[in-house]
UniProtKB/TrEMBL annotation:
Gene3D superfamilies: P-loop containing nucleotide triphosphate hydrolases (3.40.50.300)
Main location: membrane
Cellular compartment(s): Cell membrane
Keywords associated with the record: ATP-binding, Cell membrane, Membrane, Nucleotide-binding, Transport
Molecular functions (GO terms): ATP binding
Protein species of origin: Klenkia terrae
Protein name: ATP-binding cassette domain-containing protein
Limits of the ABC transporter domain: 3-225
C-alpha cells in the first residue's frame, strides 16, 4: 500500500470540516476524489501531503510510504517566477537524488522530452510558457523527487479541453500511484480505476467510474453524472 488514511477527521475548533475518511491507495493505482466545492477534497489532499494548515486538528492516521509529489490547479504557483525552468528542476534532482549538475540537467531534459516540451524549455522563464506548458513543468517538478505517490488537485481545471486531455494522459503515464481530485467526474473517469464521491467531508459513494456513470446511487453522484454528460455535449 502506498497510502493509507484511516478514520481521518479534520476540524477547526469544534467545527468538523472533513471526515471520518478512510482511503487506501495501492502501488500503481489511480484513485479519483470528486465532490462539490467545500466537500473536503483539498483538506484530504493536504493531509496526504502532510501540509494541513496550522490551527486545524486531526484525529485518525495518514500514512504515506515514501515521498508524495503534488500538482495543483495553477502550475505557476509551484514555480519560482525568478528562476529558469532548468534551475528549478535540477535543484531538487541534485538535492533529492544526489545527481551531479550535469546528470541533473540531462535527467531534466529527458523528463521534459517525455512531457512533450522542447529542450529549449530548460532555459525558459516560467512567465514565457503557456498554461499547459507550465502545468507540464509543474508535473516534472513533482516527479523530480521520485515520489511513490502523485497527488493532483484540479490539475486540468485551468486548461482548455485539448490541454486537459494531454495533461491527464501524462499523469496516467508517469504517476507511480495517483490520487486525482476534481469537481468533474468526467475528468477522473478518464483514468481512475476507483472513484470516491465526497460530500460534507465524508465518502457517500465509491466505485469504478463505469459503474458510477451507468448506475449512480447517491443523489450527489447522480448530479455529478448529469454534469459530466452535459460537459460531453458542450
Ligand atoms: N484552514 C481552514 N480553516 C477553516 N476552515 C477551512 C480551512 N480550510 C478549509 N476549510 C473548510 O473546510 C471545508 C472543506 O474545504 P476544502 O477546501 O477541503 O473543500 P474542497 O472540496 O477542496 O473545495 P474546492 O473544490 O472549493 O476547493 C470547507 O467548508 C472549507 O470552508
Amino acid at each position: 500500500m502506498v497510502a493509507r488514511v484511516s478514520g481521518l477527521t479534520v476540524a477547526a475548533g469544534d467545527r468538523r470540516l472533513a471526515g471520518p475518511v478512510d482511503l487506501a491507495v495501492a502501488d500503481g493505482e489511480r484513485v479519483g476524489l470528486v465532490g462539490a466545492s467545500g466537500s473536503g477534497k483539498s483538506l484530504l489532499v493536504a493531509a496526504l501531503l502532510d501540509e494541513l494548515p496550522a490551527g486545524l486538528t486531526t484525529t485518525g492516521s495518514v500514512q504515506v510510504a515514501g515521498r508524495a509529489g503534488a500538482v495543483f490547479q495553477d502550475g505557476a504557483t509551484a514555480l519560482d517566477p525568478l528562476a529558469r525552468v532548468g534551475a528549478q528542476l535540477t535543484g531538487p534532482l541534485r538535492r533529492l537524488r544526489g545527481l551531479s549538475r550535469a546528470a541533473a540537467r540531462e535527467h531534466a531534459a529527458g523528463v521534459l522530452d517525455r512531457l512533450g516540451l522542447p529542450p529549449g524549455t530548460l532555459r525558459a522563464w516560467p512567465a514565457t510558457l503557456s498554461g499547459g506548458q507550465r502545468q507540464r513543468v509543474a508535473l516534472a517538478l513533482a516527479l523530480a523527487g521520485d515520489p511513490r505517490l502523485l497527488v493532483a488537485d484540479e490539475p486540468t481545471t485551468a486548461l482548455d479541453t485539448v490541454g486537459q486531455a494531454a495533461v491527464l494522459d501524462l499523469l496516467d503515464a508517469l504517476a507511480p500511484a495517483l490520487v486525482l481530485v476534481s469537481h468533474d467526474l468526467a475528468v477522473v473517469a478518464r483514468l481512475c480505476t476507483r472513484v470516491l464521491v465526497l460530500e460534507d467531508g465524508v465518502v457517500v459513494e465509491e466505485g469504478r467510474p463505469a459503474d458510477l456513470l451507468a448506475d449512480p446511487r447517491h443523489p450527489l453522484t447522480r448530479d455529478l453524472v448529469a454534469a459530466a454528460r452535459a460537459g460531453e455535449l458542450a
